[in-house]
Amino acid sequence: MIARRSFLVSGAAVSGGLGLAGLGISALRPATADAVEGGGAAVEGGTADLDPGSIAKFAVRMPLPPVLAPYSVSGTTSYYRMTMKEVAAAILPGMPTTKVRTYNGKFPGPLIKARSGQRVVVEQTNGLGQPVSVHLHGAHVPESSDGGPMDLIQPGGSKTYTYPNQQPHANLWFHDHAHHQESEHVYRGLSGYYLLTDDTEQQLPLPSGQFDVSIALREARFDQAGQLVYAMDDWPNRNVILVNGKPWPYFEVAARKYRLRVFNQSNGRFFDLKLSDGSEFTLIGGDGGLLAKPYRATVVRLSPGERADIVVDFSRYPVGSKVVLENGLGPGPVEHVGKVMRFDVTRTATDNSSVPSTLRTLPDLPPATVNRRFDLSMDEDGRPDPVGYINGRTYDHHRVDTEIAYGSTEVWTVTNTNQLAPHNFHMHLVMFRVLERNGQPVTEGFETGLKDTVSILAGETVKLQATFTGYRGTYVYHCHLFDHSAMGMMGNFRVS
Known about the structure:
By secondary structure, the protein is mostly beta strands. It has two domains: 1-355, Immunoglobulin-like, CATH 2.60.40; 370-495, Cupredoxins -  blue copper proteins (Immunoglobulin-like). It contains four helices and 33 strands. Strand 2 and strand 3 (77-89) form a beta hairpin. The longest helix has 6 residues, at 182-187.
């Protein structure tokens, strides 16, 4: 039987401390019409913002990410090429094209489909004017292919990344990670999708093919010329929601079950996602693939970098129905940031898919031998150039902050010591398990699966467990609100 949850927020019930009341920061208040003015703010150079209200909602079709084909396949290895370059993309209906930074000129970025045990080799060429680094988020890879913040590809240069895919199925994505540049690069488009599958996933009767859809969410701010406006820590002014690169699109569906893999690829916006009629969907997975069993929910919260894998059964709606995917969090006017996209039920279709009561067997949690503590913080006293810290220190690529013995299992207690600012925590190299949130065991819902990113609101503490095996080397952990990591909220760990 599918476990039923009427409200799901990062896997914890509202009583577990993740309710909306008392958060004390506009970035996580429920979306309200008067939270932030919808338009007219001045941008650099004196040009006014484009009013989000001037963009027609549900007027453009949601595109699907283009699947990238390998240029060569040899044995169990597939070879790809990508070039990072700036292009002019048609984003806003009826407006001039927008300059974006892309992989292979695609906005949204391309999708690589991979399989566990079969290598993927990607040659990345930097056609931009700034250094870049390509990180495959959630991947278990050697240091040389991790795309660390200082492992840079200079303008005009190339680097070959090898992804062994020696891990179970997962909903991965790739993005820029060049330190101090990653925030603006990803905001302007440098991200893509990477779906890793295996026999465990393929043997299940879940919706597949055209009924398995990847959806990337991000926030944006435009000037009146239709160009992206970037400023550090600017979330209250990013009031246009882009879905697969389009503002508030519609997506035509059949009256049957769909698997929707939702990626929060935004710089800083949290989403509380729900269907406009309040009906349930089935949560089946997250960052590291499928959960052990499905859960029914009406809301799922995603912090930047997190993924949710859900099944929505549109057969309960008559053909002709229109169902909006809504967002319950601000900042910003509810008429803008409170809407994400619309599903239009346009036809009937045969449906032989189902969601089994058991999805997978998660690996056992071995005994932990090391306990560590990490405090996340940033300046929130109004100074003009705030800095981010982990354990009171900003990122220094020359410094190793944490030494880890190869093969060890550790428990990390991570606390957001800020009074206002939300954070989250992302670890490279390994997936982890969330043991506790605010002292309460995590026993059901979204956070019971394999994770690589976890939300930590102001004053919250999470306890994580990970086993460090597979590769030796130096990797990073950091807040995955890109603006915060660019401010220095990042540290190095070395596995040896």
